[in-house]
């Protein structure tokens, strides 16, 4: 995450917390406030209650990677606060939690339709073209 898209000042964090929407679960708390800017900016808050410096930095690195892979709507300031349980969470748990909270705060871009669909019996089919699959006819 580039430094230009980070929230750094305490008044920016405070503004998001007071003016924005908030969603939380056992791992994270996400606050999001709409702004007039055309880009989204992000801030992370990981307190000493989460763990020592090594643990806090690991959680922040994982959260930055999760935020860079999410498609957040432009024009929002987002603050993610880690709770103590985040210290034991792996990347995938943090990613699922962050995606769920972003959906609840209504800052996640709508999903694009894949060519992958799920059938009634639970199997996954890729597109209608059948590329990569040889058709077999039985008589």
What is the domain tally?
Answer: 1
Low-confidence spans:
112-120, 122-136
Per CATH, what is the topology? Ribosomal Protein S5, domain 2
Major beta sheet summary:
4 strands, mixed
What is the share of helical residues? 25-40%
- Mean pLDDT, to the nearest integer, reads 83
Quickly name the level 1 CATH class: Alpha Beta
Rg over CA atoms? 19 Å
Strand content: 15-25%
What does this structure look like?
The structure is a single chain. This protein is an alpha+beta fold. It has one domain (8-106): 2-Layer Sandwich (Ribosomal Protein S5, domain 2), CATH 3.30.230. Helix content is 29%, strand content 22%. The protein contains three helices and six strands; from the N terminus they run αβββαβαββ. It has helices spanning 10-19, 53-69, 91-104, and strands at 21-24, 28-34, 41-46, 76-82, 116-118, 124-126. The strands form two sheets. Strands 1-2-4-3 form a four-stranded mixed beta sheet, sandwiched between helices. α2 links the parallel β3 (41-46) and β4 (76-82). The radius of gyration is 19 Å and the shape is globular.
Give a short overview.
With 139 residues, this protein is of the alpha+beta class. The chain contains three helices and six strands. 29% of the residues lie in helices and 22% in strands.
């Amino acid at each position: 995450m580039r430094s230009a898209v980070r929230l750094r000042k305490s008044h920016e964090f405070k503004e998001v917390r007071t003016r924005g929407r908030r969603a939380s679960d056992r791992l994270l708390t996400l606050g999001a406030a709409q702004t007039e800017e055309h880009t989204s900016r992000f801030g992370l808050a990981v307190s000493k209650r989460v763990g020592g410096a090594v643990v806090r930095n690991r959680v922040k690195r994982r959260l930055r990677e999760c935020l860079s892979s999410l498609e957040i709507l432009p024009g929002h300031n987002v603050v993610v606060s880690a709770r103590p349980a985040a210290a034991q969470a792996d990347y995938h748990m943090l990613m699922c939690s962050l995606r769920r909270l972003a959906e609840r705060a209504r800052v996640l871009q709508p999903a694009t339709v894949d060519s992958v669909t799920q059938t009634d019996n639970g199997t996954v089919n890729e597109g209608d073209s059948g590329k990569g699959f040889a058709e077999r006819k039985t008589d």
